[in-house]
Design a protein that fits this description.
The protein has one domain: ApaG domain (Immunoglobulin-like). It is built from no helices and eight strands. Helices cover 0% and strands 58% of the residues.
Length: 127
């Protein structure tokens, strides 16, 4: 990887939302907080997202759309952007992964920042 390669670090924290979940109806709600940090040498803007959400029954949802929570943040070198969103799945465990489509405003070049797979797990399943 050269010094000019895109460097977007993606950190994830998840939380089970018990008050919005209805396990008896196969409804499990999770919040996820994402922090994107531009570790590159030039500004990069988040244009769109693509999520792959899989529950324990191997049912998959794909979500694509512009921005995140209605925004297309521009990250200067060294800058971070954090947001929280949510997802509903039919089982008490699952996974999410995907990518953010990013663009360099300086030259219009686009690249994908891969979101590493992470788990959605209720507290009861952690033990």
């Amino acid at each position: 990887m050269s010094d000019t390669s895109p460097k977007i670090n993606i950190g994830v924290k998840t939380r089970f939302i018990v008050e919005q979940s209805q396990p008896q109806d196969n409804r499990f709600v999770f919040a996820y907080t994402i922090t994107l940090t531009n570790e590159g040498i030039e500004a990069a803007q988040l244009i769109s997202r693509h999520w792959v959400i899989t529950d324990a029954n191997n049912e998959t949802q794909e979500v694509k759309g512009l921005g995140v929570i209605g925004k297309q943040p521009l990250l200067a070198p060294g800058e971070s952007y954090t947001y929280t969103s949510g997802v509903v799945i039919a089982t008490d465990t699952g996974t999410m992964s995907g990518s953010y489509q990013m663009r360099y405003p300086s030259n219009g070049l686009e690249f994908n920042a891969e979101i590493p797979i992470f788990g959605l797990v209720t507290p009861e399943r952690l033990h």
